[in-house]
Design goal:
By secondary structure, this protein is an alpha+beta fold. The protein has one domain: Adenine-n6-DNA-methyltransferase TaqI, Chain A, domain 2. The protein is built from 4 helices and 10 strands. The protein has a 4-stranded antiparallel sheet, covered by helices on one side. A hairpin with an 8-residue loop joins β6 and β7. The longest helix has about 40 residues.
Length: about 190
């Protein structure tokens, strides 16, 4: 470990969101639950419905969301905009905005998910233990390193996000056009490639 790094606990760089957001201020694209978060760190799809409660957990750009039910599915989201999540999702809020990308990368690791699974409670629908999660041992780098790391990694995370949005848009376009093409409703005989 470099000289200016130290071993600490997760609670030293983040906490859980305590803020609330009105459900009426959310959309299907800005609400995350265990249902629309994808396993194996594959992001999320659009929610199919909003909850019927009045408020839920508020999340801000730079927060990290992890499904707390059955953590072995490794459902994790980096927030690129303000949003909301169900109470079955943990919203990790970095103590300083510079820690955002670093926090996401630390929580993304197999080591963290293995730790979360080992401390989970319940058999049928195991849940991570929120207190145990916050004592997860982590190497805490110097402020200078975190700032450099963020300058490099944050744009990469943004690129991943925009690529996923574009892939979703292209999938919708494909699903709209392909049936029309197969039925002969669209004529492509004049198209030059």
């Amino acid at each position: 470990m470099p000289e200016d790094w130290r071993t600490g606990s997760l609670s030293e760089i983040c906490g859980y969101s305590k803020d609330k957001v009105n459900i009426e201020d959310l959309t299907l694209d800005t609400y995350y639950s265990t249902e629309n978060m994808q396993p194996n760190r594959q992001g999320a799809v659009q929610a199919t419905a909003l909850p019927t409660i009045k408020q839920t957990i508020a999340c801000k750009k730079g927060d990290v969301l992890i499904s707390n039910i059955r953590p072995y599915f490794k459902k994790i989201i980096y927030c690129f905009a303000d949003c909301g999540c169900s109470t079955d999702v943990l919203c990790f809020v970095p103590n300083k905005s510079e820690y955002s990308a670093f926090l996401y990368c630390a929580l993304y690791s197999d080591k963290f998910f293995d730790y979360m699974v080992a401390g989970s409670k319940g058999t049928k629908m195991p849940r991570g233990d929120k207190q145990q999660i916050m004592i997860y041992p982590i190497c805490i780098p110097s402020t200078e390193y975190v700032e450099q790391f963020s300058k490099i990694v944050a744009p990469m995370l943004e690129t991943v996000y925009t690529n996923r949005l574009e892939a979703n848009d292209l999938a919708i376009l494909r699903d709209t056009l392909l049936p029309k093409l197969m039925k002969g409703e669209i004529d492509v005989s004049e198209v030059k490639i």
